[in-house]
Amino acid sequence: MSDPKPETAAAPAAVPVLKKLHIKTYGCQMNVYDSERMAEAMGAEGYVLTDLAEEADMVLLNTCHIREKAAEKVYHELGRLRPLKDANPDLKIGVAGCVAQAEGQEIRRRMPLVDLVVGSQSYHKLPAMARAVEQGKKPVDTDFPVEDKFEHLPERPVQARPSAFLTVQEGCDKFCAFCVVPYTRGAEVSRPAARILGEARKLVEKGVREITLLGQNVNAYHGEGEDGTWSLARLVRALAKIEGLDRIRYTTSHPNDMEDDLIAAHGDEPKLMPYLHLPVQSGSDRILKAMNRKHTAAEYIRLIERIRAARPDLVLSGDFIVGFPGETDADFEETMELVRKVGYGAAYTFKYSARPGTPAAERKDAVPAEVAEARLRRLQELTISQQRATQDAMVGRECTVLFEKPGRWEGQWIGKSDYLQAVFVKGEGLAPGMLARVRIVGAGPNSLEGELI
Ligand code: 5AD
Ligand code: SF4
């Protein structure tokens, strides 16, 4: 007998229902990496990414808690999502990252429209939590689980960009008096070297040519290797042996963890790029002590001299806080003096923000807001002029550029110099992942213009 319903026999057995996920990422590169991994985990559940919150089935905010402004942005954004949820009650809203970790249930109390809350250490459980939400539950998970989340995440797919982030270390044991990271991200934990090398090899097989190693304290890396504990320098040297991987970077570092072997690697490992983000926060020893930084301004400057002796063309960037409680005009002038002495290619400058639960938040000697504001403006004038000088000094020089994507103009491509500067080049036959020698012919505040050699 013939099949009575041939047309159904030809239909696919189970077509997965595709749902749309919109992720908005706040804060540091570690959150950018985490957002990518969350998107991949949700991809395995049938979620595809969308740039538009309006068409999403789920909106996930991957949040930052470092300063009050960053944390408040999350509540502001949740308020903006309310009309979307009113229009589409099936829309699911999740909060991930450091605000989730720090505030947990409190988020749902303040914003009942939130369906799930997942901390930075638990996001491998996101797919299961999304399923629980489908069943009407409102899960909150801010545990620091014993299992390694990276081992429970799907393998990384083909990368769209030739440059990738790779988290090697998380957490911080430094307890700077102003900072929430030791509380939100927990104690320092390093991933085993073999797992990092495995992830790096797969990224390279999929077209990645530059890897930026990430960690809240990346140079405190002390992961297990086949023969004991590895330092970051050892890891960098092992990564440098991977054929097809051309560039290695790492961020963000603490001065006290700049060990001799890492400084040496800056001198003799050509794949380690000559750009280093090394925050100092203040140039005043009194304030550094109050911040619990455990180093002096002179020690920091001596360290910079040693790294520059190993790699003379090194470009430095740093983080600075002005208006830390008790900071006097004289303290601030010492910060200005340190910046003049060091000379930064880029700088991230912040007004101190009191964070609940940190020792500095207990202090009663706050700097008036307008004083902090005025100091911030002066410091920014100086750091912007140094950044401009670093850009201008590139004109006439030759450098290597890793091309990432086409620019806005016909034939134009955008890439990065060794020093992490954006370079615009017009040229035939350029493609993402190509490395080429370029002569710099023009400089703007945030980008360079180059010609193929
Ligand atoms: N207030 C202002 N800036 C802060 N940072 C960290 N905590 C605070 C705070 N409470 C800055 C530091 C750090 C960078 C990531 O953010 O400069 O290096
Ligand atoms: Fe925060 Fe200091 Fe740790 Fe950096 S080193 S994450 S500023 S506590």
Automatic annotation (TrEMBL):
UniProt-annotated binding residues for [4Fe-4S] cluster 1: C28, C64, C98
SMART domains associated with the record: Elp3 (SM00729)
Cellular compartments annotated: Cytoplasm
A Pfam family recorded for this sequence: TRAM
Ranges where the TRAM domain occurs: 392-453
Documented EC number(s): 2.8.4.3
Cofactors: [4Fe-4S] cluster
Transmembrane segments: none
Residues the record lists as binding [4Fe-4S] cluster 2: C172, C176, C179
Note on how the cofactor is bound: Binds 2 [4Fe-4S] clusters. One cluster is coordinated with 3 cysteines and an exchangeable S-adenosyl-L-methionine.
Gene3D superfamilies from the UniProt entry: Methylthiotransferase, N-terminal domain (3.40.50.12160), tm_1862 like domain (3.80.30.20)
InterPro entries, A to Z: Elp3/MiaA/NifB-like_rSAM (IPR006638), Methylthiotransferase (IPR005839), Methylthiotransferase_CS (IPR020612), Methylthiotransferase_N (IPR013848), Methylthiotransferase_N_sf (IPR038135), MiaB_methiolase (IPR006463), rSAM (IPR007197), rSAM_horseshoe (IPR023404)
GO MF, one annotated term: tRNA-2-methylthio-N(6)-dimethylallyladenosine(37) synthase activity
Catalyses which reaction(s): N(6)-dimethylallyladenosine(37) in tRNA + (sulfur carrier)-SH + AH2 + 2 S-adenosyl-L-methionine = 2-methylsulfanyl-N(6)-dimethylallyladenosine(37) in tRNA + (sulfur carrier)-H + 5'-deoxyadenosine + L-methionine + A + S-adenosyl-L-homocysteine + 2 H(+)
Location, primary (coarse class): cytoplasm
All residue ranges annotated as the Radical SAM core domain in the record: 158-389
Sequence similarity: Belongs to the methylthiotransferase family. MiaB subfamily.
Biological function: Catalyzes the methylthiolation of N6-(dimethylallyl)adenosine (i(6)A), leading to the formation of 2-methylthio-N6-(dimethylallyl)adenosine (ms(2)i(6)A) at position 37 in tRNAs that read codons beginning with uridine.
Subunit structure: Monomer.
Name of the protein in its database record: tRNA-2-methylthio-N(6)-dimethylallyladenosine synthase
Species per Swiss-Prot/TrEMBL record: Thioclava kandeliae
Name of the gene this protein is made from: miaB
